Amino acid sequence: MNNDDRRIRKTKKALREALAELMMNKELRSITIQELSDTADVHRATFYAHYRDIYDLYEQLEEAMVNEMGAIIIHDPTHTYDELFKSVIDYVIENSKMCRMFLKNHTFHERISEFLEEKYFDIWKYETGEVMVTDEWEFLANYHIQGCLAIVTRWAENDYIYPKEKITDMILRIDNHFDEILT
User: Fold this and answer.
1) Where are the membrane-spanning stretches (predicted)?
2) Are residues 43 and 78 in the same domain?
3) Rounded Cα distance, 154 and 24, in Å
């Protein structure tokens, strides 16, 4: 069967959502394949047709999320930050369970932070014409990334109750002042 097959996409989506649901109350190492399969309403053999083990599923999901977030960020280097942050917040809402699952994970935070820092530097180099990353940029990028992640993480922990428009506006207001520091 082809990975583009609708049934395969549906099965993988069910497994992803089941994992995210189970991880709201349990750690990854405590989740069994049987429990995951039951929650997703798929047979254990179906799970093994797509993944080696539960860690393989988790790693593939994490990789996909980092790549999807990266695609949003690098989509257009001439983007406006309004569009960028709205797209990121929309992505978080569309993938709310998985984002909540990953935002609780320290390793994911480190990985997405490193990725975002690299992209920030690319954007800042593009915008300023500079070729070298300064110590100041490294401090500012770390501050900005961790702040944005903290806002989104708190939002996720509170089940996305706060309106997405207000979250976007909050990040944009902070970002507008942040741009003043860079210039």
Assistant:
1) none
2) no
3) 14
- Phi/psi at 139 (5° precision): -65, -45
The pLDDT value recorded for residue 183 is: 58
Whether 123 and 166 map to the same domain: the answer is yes
Q: Look up residue 60 and give its two tokens.
A: 């593939």
Rounded Cα distance, 51 and 56, in Å: 6
Note the pLDDT of residue 91: 92
pLDDT, tens digit, 9 for 90 and up, residues 34-80:
999 999 999 999 999 999 999 999 999 999 888 888 888 777 656 67
Among 88, 39, 99, 97, smallest CA distance to 65 is for 99
CB contact at 8 A, 20 and 101: yes
Widest CA span in the chain = 57
DSSP class of 5: -
pTM over 0.70: yes
Task: Identify which of 81, 94, 103, 46 has the alpha carbon closest to the alpha carbon of residue 168.
Answer: 81
pLDDT, mean of residues 24-35:
93
What are the backbone dihedrals phi and psi of residue 31, each rounded to the nearest 5 degrees, phi first? -95, 130
The token pair at 27 is 């750690």
Handedness of CA 131, 81, 180, 117 (dihedral sign): negative
Give pLDDT, residue 178: 67
Average pLDDT, the chain: 87
